[in-house]
Amino acid sequence: MPYSYAMPVNTERNSRPLGGVLNTAVHLGHPFGDSLVRPGEALLVDGPLACGKTTLLRSFAERASESGYLTITATCSPSERDLPFGVVSQLARGAWKSPGGPPEVPGLPDILRGAGDPVDRAGIARLCHRLCTSLIDHAEHTPLLLAVDDVRHSDPASAAFLLQLVRRLDSARIAAVFTDDLSLSSSLPLRYELLRAQHLRRIGLGPLSPGQVAEVVVAELGETARRHVGDILAATGGNRLLLHTLLSDYREYGEARQTGYGQSFLSCLHRNEPIFLDVVRALAVVGSALPAADLAWLTGHEPEPISQVLAALTGAGLMDEGAFRQETARLSVLNDMPAQARRTLHQRAARLLHDQGRPAATIARHLVRAGQIPDSWSAEVLLEVAEQVAVGEEASIAVDLLEQSFEQCPHEERRAALRAKLAEAEWKINPSTATRHHAPLYGAVRAGRLGLPDSVTLLMQLLWKGGLSEVEGLLAHLRADPAATDQLHAIEAALTCTYPWLAERRAAPPHHGGAAATRAAAWPRAGTVLADVLTGGQTHDTVRRAEEVLRELQLGHDPACHEQAGLFALLALVYGGRNDLASAWCEGALGETGGGPHVPMRQAVLSAARSEIALRRGDLAEAAEQSRAALTHASPGAWGVAIGLPLGALILACTRMGRHEEAGFHVAQTVPNAMFKSSYGLHYLYARGHYFLAAGRHQAALADFLLCGELLTDWGLSSGCDPVPWRIGAAEAWLAQGNHDQARILVYQQLSRPHTDGARARGQSLRLLAATSSAKRRPQLLNEAVGLFTEQEDKYELARTLWDLSQAYHALGEKKQARRTMRRAWHVAKMCDAASLYEEWLPADDQGHATGPTPKSDTAIERLTHSERRVASLAAMGYTNREIAGKLYVTASTVEQHLTRVFRKLDIKHREQLPTELYADRMELA
């Protein structure tokens, strides 16, 4: 293609700059006059790869031919460097074979055909002399331009000819133009001769400047493409070939493509020495820049020429200090590599990065892509790498690595350890997949081939999946193992959290769960905290210990049991009424490191914990959403017996939202029988009881609630924090059947507990106690419950209690107070999506009367100042001006002034018309 845009060029004669800018108007006309190259002179076009040297050379040749010169050209190639007279053969076709060319040199055709005898050094010199003489003599009649591209790749015999010709140029009507890259070292005598020649002119080419790139981009793509100049410059480095191809890709496809940009990048490598391709392939495999010494180890070349190659690639704009400018280029290099060469480089890269202490995930990726684990890698190193990878979000890579290692390992004991790590890694992706390893691992435990930490991890997995027969056998083995004595208390505590009937109560050993805990110790220690909460209630110490476990998990100190350990620690906070802390851990540190698509079980567990927290705050829509997310990240089969936690939350949320059909669908799902023998089954039974209660099946509901209590009593957990408030549920079921006496008994039992269940359970008890008390006493009990639920931010229970309070006021004849409280109850129920409540309290036809007109637009509320919004939010909840003044520490007059401005901005006349959206702002001040 014609050279269509200007190039920055430095011209030199004997290394002295001549200055100026060379563009396509290069003159070689006759007479030579003021042209850049004249007969009797040589021109060296120097510059890095793909910067326009060949294009400029062709421009010289074309203009010379147009002016009547005999133009002979040759292109040197690294692959033809060992072919004697390879360049001369190209020149011969252009000179001696052309019409009107010089007479044929005797002996040359035989040599070029390879038919003659081998030529020694003296013979080469004689032949070169004849060739030079023939050309010089012919040039007396017809001027001659000799153009040789990439002269450094010329074969020695051809270089000898060119060397002789250059020495004799000053007495001939011959002009010679050569291209080369002087940034690369070469021992060719021709180069030295060119550089010291008196009649040499030199042009230095380089990448385009940012301004020139901008001009080309605008010229090719239009003015609107100017905003992309920065990205295009970064992708091409000003390299002309890459720029031209990238613009073509953008014009036709809108992005860089391997068949365009990528192929151009590859062509620059293939037309140079093999070391270029070797270095760039190594960089493509590693995926990041490396020093020359590391690349030397990967490629087998010496560091010095590698440094020159890196400098040449950077100077040409092809790469940026060893880094690819475009991922398309890297992928093109990888796809161009032979499979075996790529596998070998991955093996070498893995060893190099491991010896340098680089991240385990990076090392594992290389080992997986190598296809086969090298024999030089020991099983201990592989286990170390796989274990580190499994801590983070690279469980799938750990699985691939361990599978390869397992298949290649001939030793039974090492195979057992590898299988255990493989089960751990697969567990993080899908516990159902990991179950295929349980039977062989159980056999390895009985045969004494599996270590204690791996045996404890296997126990955790069996507990989750509900393999009770294997659990009992493994427990018997661990209880009989003297080496397991220090861990047995923690293991028994963890059993208390899952299968309490299997646990044996043991005295805690000193310093259990300290810094010397084993690799899998986070799970049993988290279980110890939760067991202490279940047996003795929440204390400052249990809160501290639960947060210590969560902090360790955040830092990745528990590669094996992150999911279960995190769930235990979060539930310890939730059961003890510290929803604020549990929520902060879920949404903060744990949420940030909670895994992604590569660690679905971790995300599933976090979602299940969030759903339980949302339920206890009365955020029903959030609870339903998080429950569904938990069952999406991991299938019901993957949850095992723990399915009771997210499924129970989903059933309860749907029931309270009035979605009884959906709740019934989830109740009808098949669940593992072992779930009902685990603590997770309590959540399911409690939720199902409320579903039955809403469906009018009061006896069935009562049975589920009472079964929760029986199980907790049988398991010895009746004195601590109840995972679910079963007494409250049972009391509601008795009240639904009209049995106030039995309901009162259960309420008093709940109130007599030593504050193990916290303020929320007390508020629920007070609400039910009011239902069984005299009309005069009810407001006092219910107002106390309102305060507790407001403090706990439990909107669902707050709405129910406010409704009961409105009815209590109505019974006492306090109509105005009853209406205000009823409106507040309806607002709160609406805010927490409790359709089962607000649709029952107020028919659909009357809802507009209760809520009043809504603002004309969402911006109406946004026009309120911060102070006005605070006051309006409390007013929307039903508080009087005096009550609002007390909460905000202002005067009642100030409150009245704020409300006057609020009514004017929202275009309403009464506080009953305040929009429900305001309630969300003031839950914490209610």
TrEMBL record:
Q: Which SMART domains match?
A: HTH_LUXR
What the entry lists under Gene3D superfamilies is as follows: Tetratricopeptide repeat domain (1.25.40.10), Winged helix-like DNA-binding domain superfamily/Winged helix DNA-binding domain (1.10.10.10)
In terms of InterPro entries, this protein maps to: AAA_16, P-loop_NTPase, Sig_transdc_resp-reg_C-effctor, TPR-like_helical_dom_sf, Tscrpt_reg_LuxR_C, WH-like_DNA-bd_sf
Q: Pfam families, from UniProt? A: AAA_16, GerE
Superkingdom per UniProt = Bacteria
**Gene Ontology annotations of biological process type:** regulation of DNA-templated transcription
Record key words, sorted: DNA-binding, Transcription, Transcription regulation
Q: Name one GO molecular function term.
A: DNA binding
Q: Tell me which CDD domains the record gives.
A: LuxR_C_like (cd06170)
Report domain HTH luxR-type positions: 857-922
SUPFAM superfamilies, per the entry? C-terminal effector domain of the bipartite response regulators (SSF46894), P-loop containing nucleoside triphosphate hydrolases (SSF52540), TPR-like (SSF48452)
Q: What is this protein called?
A: HbmRII
Q: Which organism is it from?
A: Streptomyces hygroscopicus
Organism placement in taxonomy: Bacteria, Bacillati, Actinomycetota, Actinomycetes, Kitasatosporales
